[in-house]
Design goal:
This protein is mostly beta strands and 120 residues long. It has a single domain, classed as Immunoglobulin-like, CATH 2.60.40. The chain has no helices and 9 strands. The chain has a 5-stranded mixed β-sheet, with no helix packed on it. The protein has a 4-stranded antiparallel β-sheet with strand order 5-2-7-8, with no helix packed on it.
């Protein structure tokens, strides 16, 4: 998936449910080959689990980036979750379900997705 936008670009994270849902988006300059010294140009944490929506706006130079969306869902009140990442108003990644799959009161799951972001 590729999203086109202009800078500044808004990243929004929406969450619902009885689970503890925290996330991060890493923005990397897109290249053909990555090496061990490469680092993301920015990391956007979405850790305010009591907020149904968090937004962050960043300035990026023109070019193509790879965005990696990471999400940790932990059983809390229950394991029910529903989350969505939007970039420049475009849905980029969404997931829903229930992480409460065992008798363990601390069930959790990690989710990951990536997409390209073209900045004009």
């Amino acid at each position: 998936m590729t999203i086109s936008a202009s800078s500044p670009v808004t990243f929004a994270f929406n969450r619902n449910g009885g689970a503890d849902i925290q996330a991060e988006v890493q923005v990397w300059i897109k290249k053909d080959v990555f090496n061990s010294n490469d680092r993301p140009v920015v990391r956007l944490p979405f850790h305010e689990a009591t907020q149904p929506t968090e937004s962050k706006q960043i300035n990026l130079s023109s070019g193509t980036y790879v965005c990696v969306a990471l999400c940790l869902v932990r059983e809390a009140l229950n394991g029910v979750f529903d989350f969505r990442f939007d970039v420049a108003g475009t849905p980029a990644y969404a997931k829903n379900g229930d992480v409460n799959t065992t008798p363990n009161p601390n069930d959790l799951q990690n989710f990951k997705s990536d997409f390209d972001l073209n900045i004009a």
